[in-house]
C-alpha cells in the first residue's frame, strides 16, 4: 500500500522532464527544500497542470519514489496571479524564489524562510510599498535568519532612520516586517547595505536580479 505524506509549501522552480512530466523544487514547512516529480503534469487536463508552477503555495500530497518524491495531488491556496500579471513585481518575485532556492536545504528547518518568502511576495502586491524596499527588507531578513547578518557596516555615517530600520528588520517578527515606508535617502542606504552584504556572502550572480536591476 502506497504511503503518502502531506506537506505545505511553495514551488520555487519547475522544469520539463520527458514529454509530459515536470520536476519541481518546493520549499516546505515540514522538510525544508525538496525535489519532486509531477507525473503527467504537462498533459492537458492534468489536475497538476496549474499546481506545479512557480509561486504556487498550498498543500501537496507526496509519495516516495526510488530517488525522489512524486506528487500525487495538490490543493493550492494561493497562485499569486496578481503578481504574475505585473511585469516588474513578477521579476522581483522570481528573484525572491531564486534566492530561497540558493539559501535553503533539504531536511533543514526552513519554516522562517518559507514564512519570509510568502510575506514578501504578498508585500510586492501592496500598492503603498516600493518594490525596492520590499527587496532590501527581504534580502536583509534572509541574512538574519541564515545567521550571516553582522549589523550595520562600519565606517559610514548612517541616517538615524536607517539605523532604526535595520534594527527593526533584524528583530521584528516576519508578520510585521512590511509595515513601514522610508524616505528616499534611507531607501538608498538600505540598498547600499543589502548590496554590500549580498556581494560579500553570496557566491554567485542571480539571473533574475540582473533583470530587476535593469528594470
Known CATH architecture of the largest domain: Up-down Bundle
The name CATH uses for the topology of the largest domain is de novo design (two linked rop proteins)
Largest sheet: 5 strands, mixed, barrel
Q: Which class of the largest domain in CATH terms?
A: Mainly Alpha
How many β-strand runs?
A: 5
What structural class is derived from the secondary structure elements?
alpha+beta
Query: In total, how many domains does the architecture comprise?
Result: 2
N to C succession of SSEs: EEEEEHHHHHHH
Helix content: 40-55%
Basic shape = elongated
Beta strand %: 15-25%
Number of helices: 7
End-to-end Cα distance: 52 Å
Radius of gyration: 18 Å
- Mean pLDDT reading: 94
> What topology, given as strand order, has the largest sheet?
1-2-3-5-4
Weakly predicted, low-confidence segments: none
Could you describe the 3D structure shown?
With 215 residues, this protein is α+β, with helices and mostly antiparallel strands. It folds into two domains: 4-78, OB fold (Dihydrolipoamide Acetyltransferase, E2P) (Beta Barrel); 83-213, de novo design (two linked rop proteins) (Up-down Bundle), CATH 1.20.1440. The chain contains seven helices and five strands, in the order βββββααααααα. It has helices spanning 81-85, 87-103, 111-124, 131-145, 160-171, 184-201, 207-213, and strands spanning 4-17, 21-28, 32-38, 57-64, 69-78. A five-stranded mixed β-barrel has the order 1-2-3-5-4. A hairpin with a 3-residue loop joins β2 (21-28) and β3 (32-38). It is elongated, with a radius of gyration of 18 Å. 32% of the residues are buried. The model has no long low-confidence stretch (mean pLDDT 94).
